[in-house]
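thread: overnight batch results

M.L. [08:02]
morning all. the overnight job finished for the chain we discussed friday. pasting input first so we're all looking at the same thing
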Amino acid sequence: MNWKILAASLLMSCSAIAEEPPQQALAGTNIDPIATRLNYMLNCQGCHAADGRGLNDIPAMADFVGKFLKVEGGRAYLVQVPGSANSPLSDQALADVLNWILLTMSPEQLPQPFMLYDAEEITSFRQQPLANAATTRARLLAKLRIQERGTYRANPF
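M.L. [08:03]
and the structure it wrote out:
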């Protein structure tokens, strides 16, 4: 496939996704839905799927990821996981992608009021990489279970 056909195909795909997810989720933000969705497609979708359901052993984000913002350390975790921390995205582009994910894939799980990530916060969290993302995730999930149910349960959400 030559580059012109590939570029036209990508442009048509971006135009089609501009309406998905609903634009009202991004109202009041400066997030460019097309550029941010494209960054998600290029940097996240390969593991988390187009709809955020996760693939194989990669955790699902849809209808869940916003819960991390309700527990101490969860906000940093979303930036410090290897896929975020090591992505080639600028700090502002990563902030936009994380905000887009949270606002479009997990709006009902967000704490209120929800504070958008900004580039400065991303810079700060990226400077503190995780030693073990799976262990940190398990610890945060245990905190969430205790917080939401009042007791620890061995089963994940």
